[in-house]
Design goal:
Keywords: Metal-binding. This is VOC family protein. The protein is an alpha/beta fold and about 120 residues long. The chain is globular and about 40 Å long. Helices cover about 20% and strands about 35% of the residues. The chain contains two helices and eight strands. The strands form two sheets. Strands 1-4-3-2 form a four-stranded mixed beta sheet, with helices on one face. The protein has a four-stranded mixed beta sheet with strand order 5-8-7-6, with helices on one face.
Length: about 120
């Protein structure tokens, strides 16, 4: 077997409206059509997708609260990390600068899913 590309990541969210605000308005991701019969939203990021699926009784699953990058997370690239940081702070989302000295930060969506944002 030879894996040729990563297609999508599925994330659980408890409140679709709050999640859509974060992924659509704060991160600026493009929603795409989906024809499934359960609540959720899909986003396109280049050739990759993020699938949000509703789970109404979701519990935060942070295993390492001190270093968010040592938890399950997805990583997204930006061209301007300072702009991304300011946007997240303005919108009231928490940020943690990467401890690795890379040009990267971590944030959490409204359900505590960790998102890494790196300068590429």
């Amino acid at each position: 077997m030879q894996i040729t590309q990563c297609l999508h990541t599925a994330l659980l969210v408890s409140d679709l409206e709050k999640a859509q605000n974060f992924y659509s308005n704060v991160l600026g991701l493009a929603k795409i059509d989906r024809t499934l019969n359960y609540p959720g939203v899909w986003y396109q990021v280049g050739t990759y997708q993020i699938h949000l699926m509703v789970h109404p009784h979701l519990e935060n699953s942070l295993k390492n609260e001190e270093k968010w990058g040592r938890n399950p997370h997805i990583a997204l690239a930006v061209d301007n990390l300072d702009e991304a940081k300011k946007r997240l702070q303005t919108e009231g989302y928490p940020i943690q600068i990467s401890a690795s000295a890379r040009a990267a930060l971590f944030t959490q969506d409204p359900d505590g899913n960790i998102i890494e944002i790196s300068k590429m």
